[in-house]
Design brief:
Largest sheet: 8 strands, mixed
Order of helices and strands: EEEEEEHEEEHHHHEHEHEHEHHHEEE
Structural class: alpha/beta
Number of strands: 16
Radius of gyration: 21 Å
Oligomer: single chain
Helix content: 25-40%
Strand content: 25-35%
């Protein structure tokens, strides 16, 4: 397939006016200026003429519960939190995502081609996130990376859930202590397994502990649900104690400690700012947070936290962040290449480069502006959405 014309924002350091992209076998095969290029469509090869449109990498949602908390289905469609045990690291998002959730279609219509999807924040440890494409029936076929992160939650949510059941955690101290105990046990398990392998001895795997190994080995991050300043610093403290990669998800008061966070080096996934301040810990939530963190040097992505804010509002949330101080180019990055890097999938998605997945969104203009229309959404080189005329 050829995509010809328009302005191509590669998100790889350059824009190409009146350019072209050629895809083959689900990947980007060629990209460059149209003038002087040998554009020769083969028999049956589709050509999309963009003219004045804007061509971007498919947009990326870095934190959501699409397909796990389904729309319009109540308890029957809510598989987000296993609220009987505060420590459930062995739960896997791929076992609960219903790709028939209407939110997947909404994502595609908004130019969102992939998303990080996983458990909620009622537990101290909620389970394993998966990074998925947004179009398809069988979840196994959508997987880019799974597991892609381990969810941990600090602050109000675990406290409210378990103090109501009359058991720990009912304080922030207990949340931190329980997470430390879990990580200490996992680290000891890793050492026992390593010694057994060195000695050539049999080793019985522990299903509960095995899921921690990619976290301890820094292959995937701890995905920390944090809003308040004190919770952010507790998450940082524990991540440093155990030498973990980590993402600071929500980071609602991050703008109050931006310089300190920049010095720590952990990225932030900020939002959902297009939602009410429904809890004490989000009283300082604001669209300015993304820009302040970004300007301080923290790598930032934007999240809707669907269904807290609707998935299709992702580019509009970026626009509101730009309105509140985030530089425009950083707004584009916050919904393309930055979430790809933060989620550990930048080798495949997040920018338009030869060899990467042909995940492409074509818009009538800047998608951060409310009247902009999605013209085409392309995933793995297939047109999965096309705006109909009339």
């Amino acid at each position: 397939m050829y995509i010809i014309g328009g302005l191509i924002k590669t998100m790889a350091g350059k824009d190409i006016a009146d350019g072209y992209i050629r895809t083959e076998n689900g990947r980007i095969k060629e990209i460059g200026k149209r003038k002087g290029a040998a554009i020769r469509p083969e028999n049956g090869e589709r050509v999309i003429e963009v003219r004045d449109g804007l061509i971007l990498p498919g947009l990326i949602e870095a934190h959501c519960h699409m397909g796990i908390t389904e729309e319009k289905k109540g308890m029957e469609g809510d598989d987000c939190n296993e609220t009987v045990d505060p420590l459930t690291p062995y739960l896997r998002a791929v076992d609960a995502v219903n790709t028939m959730d209407a939110a997947f279609d909404d994502a595609v219509r908004a130019g969102i081609t992939s998303a990080m999807i996983g458990p909620g924040s009622s537990n101290v440890v909620g389970g394993q996130f998966a990074f998925l494409k947004t179009r398809g029936r069988r979840v196994d076929d959508l997987v880019v990376k799974a597991p892609a992160a381990m969810k941990a939650a600090f602050g109000e949510n675990p406290k409210v859930n378990y103090s109501g059941q009359g058991k720990s955690p009912s304080t922030r101290m207990a949340i931190a202590a329980m997470l430390r105990e879990e990580l200490t046990g996992a680290r000891a398990y890793r050492e026992r397994k390593k010694k057994a392998a060195e000695k050539g001895e049999d080793f019985e795997q522990d299903f509960r502990m095995e899921c921690w190994l990619p976290v301890l080995d820094r292959e995937i991050p701890l995905k920390a649900h944090v809003h308040r300043v004190d919770d952010i610093f507790t998450a940082v403290r524990i991540a440093k104690e155990f030498n973990l990669k980590m993402t600071l998800d929500h980071c609602s008061e991050g703008h109050l400690i931006a310089e300190e966070l920049a010095g720590e080096g952990f990225p932030a996934i900020v939002g959902p700012d297009l939602a009410s301040r429904s809890k004490i810990e989000v009283q300082n939530m604001a669209f300015k947070t993304v820009g302040i963190l970004n300007q301080a040097g923290v790598m930032t992505a934007i999240t809707t936290d669907h269904p807290v804010s609707l998935i299709q509002s992702l580019p509009l949330c970026a626009g509101l962040a730009v309105k509140s101080g985030l530089p425009l180019e950083e707004g584009y990055k916050a919904i393309t290449i930055h979430p790809a890097i933060i989620c550990g999938v930048e080798a495949r998605v997040g920018s338009l480069e030869v060899g990467k997945d042909a995940d492409i969104a074509i818009f009538s203009g800047n998608p951060m502006e409310v009247f902009t229309e999605t013209l085409y959404t392309i995933i793995d080189g297939r047109v999965v959405y096309e705006k109909q005329e009339g």
